[in-house]
Amino acid sequence: MSIKSKIQIALLILLPALWASLFATEPVIITPERPSALAFPPGETVRYAAEFLRYYIKAATGKKLEIIPESKAERYPVRIWIGNTQFATKNLENVSFHPEELLIRSFGNDLVLCGEITSDGLDRGTLFAVYEYLEQALGIRWFFADIPQLYPNGLGTEIPENDELKLTGWNIRKFPYCRQREGGISYYYESVAVQKLWHPVLRFGSSLPYRNANHTQINWYDLYHETHPEYFAKNTEGKTVFNTRLPHRNYICPGETGVLARMIQNIADADAGKPPEKAWGPCPPEKNYVYFAFNDGMTLQKTCHCSTCIRLLRPGVPEAGQASELVFDFIRRYAEAIQIRWPERSLVTLAFHHYRKPPEKSVIPDNVNVIYVSKYMHYANHPAHWNEETFYVKEWSRLLKNDPNRLRIWLNIVAPAQYTSQVPFFYPHLFQKWLRANLQYSDSYFINGLNPYLKRLNVTARQKAVATYPMVYLQSRLLWNPNADVDVLFEDYTRKLYGPAGKTMQEVYRIFCKRWEDFAMPPDADEAGYIHSVRYPPGIIAQINILFAQAISETEENSIYRHRVELFQNHQWLPFMAESELYRTKE
């Protein structure tokens, strides 16, 4: 073959790469040859983060970037490196990461988006880096999840149009201050499809090795009520009356020795892969942890009153401590039995409802971790509630030897919206104050404020969650950074979500905030009466009606901003106003 022919063949081979190198002006997205698995979504790798990035860059700029494996990266002059690439490893070899930390850093025309990877190869930071970059570089916001059956027009996501994609000059590192940031949407509630939609909104996550204990006994009625009725609570007459309509509202007898023996045997059976598989509800035993929680709805009246249990009940004390001695005496015995047989295991349990107050007599073994379920955090602008809640947190911390790994806090803020009223409640400054005061005791939070509505199948019921959206969004930002400026965050929220009506809607929520944060409901107050007589008297309702009308007038018909105003008006404000009118009619 002649030299000329060889040159022609070489040019044919090299020309595509040379052409790409010389004339390609758009960046490409580079993925690792072996992408790490992501902590979330389950089953996904760094490739998911790359595709997420490409989708939103296209939506904002119109540019559809190629996703290229690292082995072909040298052909391209402008690159975005995603996750565990060799390029990132080489250029960040001296960087150590906090749990779930994200990193955004420029190296000339190269941009690296990556994050913390666990010792077993699980990537917990790259997806957060992608979210952060899209928010900062393109102004994209995810204010609430665009669930198609609820909001088919994508009402919760704001994607401004952009001409440029900035790749140079970046040097950002962030990690969440709170190691657990979960709630109604988390790593194990709702379907994964719904979780994916909420993940960029809330940036939920957890870097602690154990999960929350909850609903562990919900199947015990089905499993044992016929063969072992003695396992279950007795009433004041010494009889067991089963709730057949709601089987998960049957409760065990902590004083029955067979209950503890059955639990220990169930752990052994679970380790051996034997049935009953449902003995643990959604929380089966793990290598280092066993989970236990009484079924929801257990009040003093429904707690076992057998001759053994009744000796440890305290009906004459405030509600928070009526069953503390009984419950944590059982927890002590359960933990000690676990310690003898499985010394590597800890018992994770709840301090909830009428046993959320720390016990005064029952010892808390060293292999017990507690999730304290706060009842009044969102009422803590009243000194009585503030003092009670903060005292319980401090005391639990003391009993757990001031080890933040052993104490989590569950903010149970479903009242009053789930049970009493559709009242708009908005308290971001109070939440920040509470968070800052208690972070020294626990940096792990589960917020149960969104989930009760999302779990309803009825669309109308699920849309009640709209009332919680602004607060849930700000809570998620504060769990990442408790020192963030609340007012700046909320100004950004209203300006971007409502566009030309942003200032008016900010005033609406400023009133909501003032009516909640500046008016402290006394502990003995009638909640509905306080809401309609003090928080939202007729004059305030009239003022808010004027503001909603103004916001409507400031937006164009059929615009996304008009639809967002109408969404919050129709599903938050109007139901409450109807409720308020009904209350005054009955008064």
Can you put this structure into words, describing what you see?
The protein has about 575 residues and is an alpha/beta fold. It has a domain at about 20-175: Chitobiase, domain 2, CATH 3.30.379. It is built from 18 helices and 17 strands. Strands 12-11-17-16-15-14-13 form a seven-stranded mixed beta sheet, covered by helices on one side. It has a six-stranded mixed beta sheet with strand order 3-1-4-6-5-10. Helix 9 links the parallel strand 15 and strand 16. Helix 10 packs parallel to helix 13, helix 15 packs antiparallel against helix 17 and helix 17 (about 540-555) packs antiparallel against helix 18. Mean pLDDT is about 95; it is low at about 15-25. Pfam families: DUF4838.
Do you know the CATH topology of the domain at 21-175? Answer: Chitobiase, domain 2
> CATH H level of the domain at 21-175: which superfamily?
Chitobiase/beta-hexosaminidase domain 2-like
Q: Please state the CA-atom Rg, rounded to the nearest Å.
A: 28 Å
Share of residues in helices: 25-40%
Reading off the top of the CATH hierarchy, the class of the domain at 21-175 is best stated as Alpha Beta
Average predicted confidence as pLDDT: 93
- Strand order within the widest beta sheet: 12-11-17-16-15-14-13
Helix segment count? 18
Q: Main β-sheet, in a few words?
A: 7 strands, mixed
Enumerate the spans where pLDDT stays under 50 for 5 or more consecutive residues: 15-24
Q: Name the structural class.
A: alpha/beta
Question: What separation lies between the terminal Cα atoms?
Answer: 102 Å
Hey, roughly how much beta strand do the residues contain? 5-15%
Number of strands: 17
Q: What sort of overall outline do the alpha carbons produce when their principal axes are compared?
A: globular
CATH architecture of the domain at 21-175: 2-Layer Sandwich
